[in-house]
Write a structure and sequence with these properties.
homodimer; 3-stranded antiparallel β-sheet; 179 residues; mainly alpha; 7 helices; DNA-binding
Chain lengths: 179, 179
DNA sequence: GATCGCATGTAAGTGGTTACATGATTTA
DNA sequence: TAAATCATGTAACCACTTACATGCGATC
C-alpha cells in the first residue's frame, strides 16, 4: 500500500463524497474549509495525479455541452478501502502553535498598552472568524439537506465554534486584568 | 533589517529571557513548550548562527570548571529592538488543522462503533495532555517565583487549559449522541 | 474585443523533519 | 567500563507556498 500524506487523504476524502475536479477541491478549501484545511494548486494537482497512478481514483474529461476542459475524479474501490484504513488509524491532537501566545509569553518586554493592543487585535480577528463560522453552519443546515455528511459537518463546526468562543472569552477575561 | 522566521523569533525570545545554549532551548521545547512550539536541532543550531551573524545575539564559550563545551548566547541591544518590533506586529490566529475533525467530517464512511473508538482515543489523549498541562502550571507557580515572565506564562497556559477542557467537553457531549 | 472567472498546471524556493555523526562527561 | 546524558552539528529528504504561465468560455 502506498503511503499518502495527510493532504492526499484530505483530497481523497473530498472525492469520496462525490466525483470532483481539482478546481472544485480548491474552491471547497477556499470557501468552506478555510480555517480547517487549505492546500495550494501546486499541491492539489500533483496529488490528483498520484492518486490516479495508484489507482485510488479514476478520471474522465467532462464532455457536457460546450463545457471547459474539466477533469473529474472518482474514487475507486481500492481508494475507498485505503481511505477507510486511514480513518481508522488513531490520530494525535495537533500541536497548538498560536503565535499570539508566543508573544504573550514575552509580555515582560511590552507595556500594558502594547499588550492590550495585541490582544484586542487578536480578539477582533477571532470574532470575525466566529461570524464567518456561523454563516458556514447556517449554510450547512439549509443547503445540505439530505446529504449524508451533514450531521458530521455540523459536529465538526460545533467544535470549531466552541473553541473560538473559548478563546474570545479568554481574551475578554485577561484584558480586564493584565499584569 | 533582516527578515527572520517565526522559529527564529522564538529562539531569540527564549534568549531574551536569559542567556542560553542551543541545548537549553531544545530542552525547554521538549519539556515545557511541547504542545505550543517545538523545533529540531537541525533548525535550532543554524538559527543561532544566523542570529549571531546578524548581531542580534553574541556568543561565549562556557568556561566554568570542567564543563562540557557549551556555547552560550546573549541577546544584544539590536536583537532586543528587533524582537520588540516583532512582538508589536499584529498576528493572525493560527489555522486549525485538527486531524480528528477531518476524519469526523468523513464519518459517513464509518460505523458508529468505529467513530466511537476514534473519539474515545482522541479524548484520552486530550485528557493526558491536560494532566501534563496542569503539572506545568504547578511548576510555573512554584518554581518561577520572582521571574518576570511568570504572570505571562500563567496567562498562556490558562488559554491552553481552557481549550483542552473545551475539546474534552465536546468529546463527551458528542459521544453521547452520535448520528 | 477586453476582461473576468473557470480550469489546469509548474519552477523555484522555504521551512521543516528524520536520522545520523561526533565526542565529551557523568553515573551505574 | 558500559551506558546514559550533555552538547553540537549536518545531509538528505519532504511538504508546502508563492508566483507565475496558459488557455478557454462567458460576460460587459
Amino acid at each position: 500500500m502506498t503511503e499518502l500524506t495527510k493532504s492526499a487523504y484530505v483530497v481523497l476524502g473530498l472525492i469520496s463524497k462525490r466525483p470532483q475536479a481539482g478546481y472544485d477541491i480548491k474552491q471547497i478549501m477556499r470557501k468552506i474549509a478555510r480555517y480547517i484545511w487549505s492546500e495550494s494548486n501546486a499541491q492539489i494537482y500533483p496529488i490528483l495525479k498520484k492518486l490516479e497512478q495508484n489507482k485510488l481514483v479514476t478520471s474522465q474529461l467532462d464532455k457536457t455541452s460546450g463545457a471547459r476542459r474539466r477533469c473529474i475524479y472518482t474514487i475507486t474501490k481500492k481508494g475507498m478501502e485505503q481511505l477507510k484504513d486511514w480513518l481508522n488509524e488513531p490520530s494525535d491532537p495537533t500541536p497548538y502553535r498560536e503565535e499570539v501566545l508566543l508573544k504573550l509569553s514575552l509580555g515582560q518586554h511590552l507595556s500594558k498598552k502594547q499588550l492590550q493592543k495585541i490582544l484586542e487585535n487578536y480578539k477582533e480577528k477571532l470574532e470575525e472568524q466566529l461570524k464567518e463560522e456561523k454563516e458556514i453552519i447556517k449554510h450547512i443546515e439549509t443547503e445540505h439537506e439530505k446529504r449524508p455528511d451533514k450531521p458530521y459537518l455540523l459536529l465538526v463546526y460545533n467544535q470549531i465554534e466552541k473553541i473560538l468562543e473559548t478563546k474570545i472569552a479568554w481574551c475578554k477575561k485577561i484584558l480586564n486584568h493584565l499584569p
